[in-house]
Amino acid sequence: MHEVKLSDGIVTLSPLRPDDVEPHLAGEDELLVRWLSGGPSTREGAEAYFRHCREQWDTAGPLRAFGIRVGADEVLAGTIDLRFAGAGLEPGQVNVAYGLYPPWRGRGLATRAVLLAFPYVASEGGAEAVIKVEPGNPASAAVAQRAGFTPGGSAYDKDGTLYDRYVRTCTRPPGD
What pLDDT, on a 0 to 100 scale, did the predictor assign at position 34? Predict the structure, then answer.
């Protein structure tokens, strides 16, 4: 795998790595568990997931998990996952899921991360990006809307959870 690094000078996205486990565990709170992971992480579970993420990068699998990093020292502030295949996705659709640790919320960093990821999605063949948001999570819906996504209806996941879908057509960057 070649190392992917995307930056706007404030936020940097780079693949999750083993040394991100500790800051992830320290940063996880009730909101991340509720809206993103569905259950509190254990060290073993986080280590296994981060290994899986690395394997997905190494094999060009359908999951591309980035750390959202801030500042010159690239402190881990959260994560953004891109899924190029999965339940509820049509061919060419890419699911975008993001979460920030509490000290980093409310600063526009999630919106920056989504905007940074968007050209990458297009360059990897994504035709449409999809963000699924539970109706009770207005902060996530606001990120989607600030990043130029438009409402795309509602749908139930296989577990029966209702999501509002936000969509944005992907276009390849010039010269790609």
Answer: 75
Q: What's CA 159's distance to the chain center, in Å?
A: 20
> Given this model, what pLDDT does residue 172 score?
60
Q: How far is CA 172 from the centre of its chain?
A: 19
pLDDT of residue 161: 86
Check: CB of residue 95 under 8 Å from CB of residue 130.
yes
Secondary structure, 3-state, 48-81: HHHHHHHHHHHCCCCEEEEEEEECCCCEEEEEEE
For residues 40 and 3, the answer to whether their CB atoms sit within 8 Å is no
CA dihedral of 25, 27, 28, 30, whole degrees rounded to 10: 150
Closest to 133 in 3D by CA, of 110, 115, 154: 154
